[in-house]
Amino acid sequence: MSREPRTQNVTTDAGEARITWVPATTAPRLVLAVSHGAGGGIEARDLKALAAAVPAHGVTVALVEQPWRVAGKKVAPAPKTLDTGWRGLWPALAAPGLPVVAGGRSAGARVACRTAAELGAAAVLALSFPLHPPGKPEKSRADELLGTGVPTLVVQGGNDPFGRPEEFPPGAYELTEVPYGDHGFAVPKKSGLTEAQAMEVLTGAVTGWLTSLG
Predict the structure, then answer these.
(1) Most buried of 17, 67, 127, 166, CB within 10 angstroms?
(2) HSE toward the beta carbon, residue 147, CA cutoff 13 A
(3) Beta carbons within 8 Å of 9's beta carbon, 6+ residues apart
(4) What is the pLDDT of residues 48-75, one digit of tens each?
């Protein structure tokens, strides 16, 4: 595989999806497939930071754009449709013949959690997992996170209104906090933490975890 980023369109039962491949710069050992949330795309700061950081550690990054996003729609469809799109992409993600870590941010994290076991994901990376809608902790989605069946890392902003780190239930997963971060890992200036430093916390945690997977 060339070490230059390239895009690949994939036809799924939910429509045309797109993968932007960012190849590993050393001998590839894993594919990290990450999708966006319900309100943004692969230009999210955390996805861009990972695409810049982890290829040097033998990890090829696949930035996944769901069909609704490729079609130019502003609002994500129902979770079931998101899962359909992800399933349709999976053969392309697995095509390099490497273990695939399924991941995403927010709604994308939920998709990765829900489908990991059936698709044979090696692990799950959940960025800004939306544990509950803002202000509605009683509407917990913890069962999705607890049911992955594979090694799972959650990276969560300390001030995420969709679930602060201390709200997460005990379970067989790891959790790293990005101090002061909101749902998009933005940090307030008064925190004394820069965006670059916040992203270093995130990429450092993910890189270390990916290395531990072997």
Answers:
(1) 127
(2) 11
(3) 16, 17, 18, 70
(4) 999 999 999 999 999 999 999 999 999 8
Over its C-alpha atoms, the chain yields an Rg (Å, rounded) of 16
Q: For residue 36, give Cα distances in angstroms to 49, 93, 97, 165.
A: 13, 16, 24, 20
Residues 6+ apart with CB under 8 A from 139: 132, 133
Instruction: Taking each helix axis as running N to C, give the angle between helix 195-212 and helix 45-53, from 0 to 180 degrees, rounded to the nearest 10.
Output: 50
Q: What is the mean pLDDT of the chain?
A: 96
Q: Which two tokens stand for residue 12?
A: 């799924």
Read off the pLDDT of each residue in 160-175 and give the average, rounded to a whole number. 97
Residues 113, 150: Cα–Cα separation, whole Å: 9
CA distance 168 to 125: 15
What distance in Å separates the CA atoms of residue 37 and residue 46, rounded to the nearest whole number? 11
Q: What separation in angstroms does the CA of 130 have from each of 13, 41, 95, 143, 212?
A: 26, 16, 30, 12, 25
